[in-house]
Amino acid sequence: MAGAIFVFAVSGCVDAGEQSSSAVSASETITRTMKENKTSLELNTIANEDLTKTVMETIAAETKVETETVTAAETKVEAETVTIAETKVEAETVTAAETKMEAETVTIAETKVEAETVTAAETKVEAETVTSAETKVEAETVTIAETKVEAETKTTAAMQETSIETPSVPAEIIADSGKLEAELHDEAVALSSAEAAVTQKVSVVASGELEKKNEKAVIDYSNTADGYIMVKYLAETELRLKVQVKGPSTTYTYNLIPQLWAAFPLSDGNGDYQITVYQNVSGSKYAAILSLKTEIELNDEFAPFLHSNQYVDYDSAPAVVAEAARLIGDKEDALKQVEIVYNYVVKGMTYDKELAKTVKSGYLPDLDKVLEKKSGICFDYAALMTGMLRSQSLPCKLVVGYAGTAYHAWISVWVEGSGWVDGVIWFDGSSWQRMDPTFASTANGNDSILAYIGDGTNYTAKYFY
Questions:
Q1: CB 23 within 8 A of CB 11
Q2: pTM value?
Q3: What's the CA gap between 133 and 277, in Å, rounded?
Q4: Is the N or C terminus of the chain more exposed, i.e. has fewer CB atoms within 10 Å?
Q5: How far is CA 79 from CA 82, 85, 90, 357, in A?
Q6: If we measure between CA atoms, which residue out of 251, 217, 249, 211 comes closest to residue 234?
Q7: Model confidence pLDDT, tens digit, residues 396-440
Q8: Alpha-carbon distance 146 to 281, whole Å?
Q9: Domain boundaries 314-464, corresponding CATH code
Q10: What is each CA distance from 350 to 12, 320, 374, 438, in whole angstroms?
Q11: CB 190 within 8 A of CB 400
Q12: Which CATH class is domain 135-188+204-299?
C-alpha cells in the first residue's frame, strides 16, 4: 500500500492532459496493483493457509509420532511390567511347586523311613517269635499273667495275701533249644494267716525209660501213669530256670534248680500235656530250651496226690515221715488217721507273722524245718499236713486259691468210709473234703471261724499240687 501511494504523489506533478491520461493509467496501475496485491495477499493467504496446514499437519504428524512413541513406550513398559509380573508369578509358582515337591519328597522320605522303622520293628518281633530253622523251634509267645499282691485282714490276726492270675501257655511248642522267648513271672506264695494228706509211700524216680533230652536238659516221663514227671537241668548256671506244665485245663509254672531232679504232679488228670523247660534271657523273658508233648493216662485219680513233689517234698523230709508213722501207729481206720494228723498240725503249729512279712516269691516249704519250728505260714501248714498224710498212703491235695479275697493254701483229703472229724468236718467216703489247718489252728474254738471254714462258698481253688 505504501508503494501505491508514492506513485500517486509523483503523478500529481504533471499537466492536466497528461493528468487525465496519467490518471487513467494510474488508476489502472493502482487497480492492477491492488489486484496484484490482492492476488499476492490471496496467495499469501493461501500460502499461509498451506503453511498453517503444513505446520498443523507437521504438528499432527509429530503429535502422532509422539503419541505412537509414547504409546509404544507405554505399551512396552506395560508389556515389560506384565512380563515381569508374569515372570514373577511363574517364578513363585515354580518355587511353590518345587517347595511342594520338596515337602512331598521329604514327607515321602519320612514316611518311607517310618515305614522301614515299623517294618524293622515288626520284623524284629516276628524274628523273635518265629521258628528258628536252625533250632527247629516252633515260635509262639507265651504270656504268663503277672503276679499281684493283695493285702486284707480277714480275722483277728492279720491275713496277708498274694494273688496270681491264671497263666496262659503256648499252643504248639516243640522246642529243643533256646530260641523261643516267653514272658514268665514267679508264682505267688500263699500267706493267708487266719492262722493258719496214700496206699504206701511211693518215692518218685527218674527211671530213664522214657526221656526227652538235649545238651541242656532232660524230661523223664517214664512214670506219668503214677501222676508225675521229672525234670533236670544238666549244666551249671546262674540263670533262672522254670518248668511249665500245661494240662488239659490249667497251666502250672515252677522254678527249677540246676543239676537237681525235681518232680512235678500231673494235677489235671488224664489228657494231653505239654512240658517246657525255660531259661532266663533277661528280666521276665525266658527262652524255651526243651519241650515235650505227651498224652497222659493215670492209674487212678489219686495218683498225682500220693507222691512227693516240689511243693510237698516229703521224700526229703525223713523226720516228717517218721513223725506221721509214729502218730498213726497201728490205727487202721483212715478217717481216724486223718483226724490224728489234722489235730497234730492244728494244735501244734503257730502262725509265723515275721515270715509272712519277709517271704519272697519262689518260697518252698522245707517240711523237716517246719516240723522242727512248729510254725509257718499257711503254705507250711498245708504242705506239712499233706506230706504227713501222703507218706501214710492217704490221698491229699495241697490247694492254693482264695478264701474270700485272701490268697490262701489249704488241703483236700479223700478217705474211704464216712464220718466226722472233730465234729465239724464231714467225710462222705465218695468225695474230696476240704480242711483248713491254718484257719482252724488260730480259731481257738471260735464258732464263727469254724463256720467260715465249713462254708464251701468262701473258698475258690485255683491250683492243686
A1: yes
A2: 0.61
A3: 20
A4: N
A5: 5, 10, 16, 95
A6: 217
A7: 999 999 999 999 999 999 998 888 787 678 888 889 999 999 999
A8: 17
A9: 3.10.620
A10: 185, 17, 7, 9
A11: yes
A12: mainly beta
